[in-house]
Amino acid sequence: MSNWAERVVSRLSVMACVFLLGLMACGDSGTAPVLPASPLGEGKAHFRGSSIGDRIDDVLRREPIDSVVFSIPKQVVYSFGSDTTVLQVSYEFEEDTLHTIQADWFFVAPEMLTRLQDEVRAGFDTRYARQDSDGDFEVWQAVRADGSMVEFTLMEATTEYGRPVLSLTVYRFE
């Protein structure tokens, strides 16, 4: 199987696992940590304190070890939840640096999705250059210090999951 096909199969497998874990976590109000106030990174960080190109050790140090739900050498998936929202975050690495961030928020109510979507949209519009907007799908890009591009894709995925879901992908654009 080609490298691209392996990544697609791996991502689909993880997304299915993440979706099932998200469904289970919505019903469990007492064990998962509370969601952070904002997914936007501090300063110049892309997401929750981490940026594309960060070393694997630095990314792992920023997230609580007890929130890991899946881990292989080039990918770690975390889950955070409350009574109303579950956040699943997948960090993928290439050559020991962060290459892709996939974050999916599973909401109980559509209003919560709209509120977070508006917050992320406003934050990204301030920080990055919007490239495309097509209904539920929006794209921003940024140039890193080394000249490489980072792309941010925000998508309402409610139709795909049958419940309110907001999906964010951040990756090195090559």
Shape: globular
Number of helices: 4
The major pleated sheet works out as: 8 strands, antiparallel
Mean pLDDT over the residues: 79
Total beta strands = 8
Q: Structural class, from secondary structure content?
A: alpha+beta
Distance between the termini: 21 Å
Task: Give the SSE map.
Layout: H1 3-26, H2 56-62, E1 68-72, E2 75-81, E3 85-94, E4 97-107, H3 110-127, E5 129-134, E6 137-143, E7 149-156, H4 158-161, E8 165-173
Antiparallel strand pairs: 1-2, 2-3, 3-4, 4-8, 5-6, 6-7, 7-8
What does it look like?
The protein is an alpha+beta fold. It is built from four helices and eight strands. The chain has one domain (3-173). The chain has an eight-stranded antiparallel β-sheet with strand order 1-2-3-4-8-7-6-5, sandwiched between helices. Strand 1 (68-72) and strand 2 form a beta hairpin. It is globular.
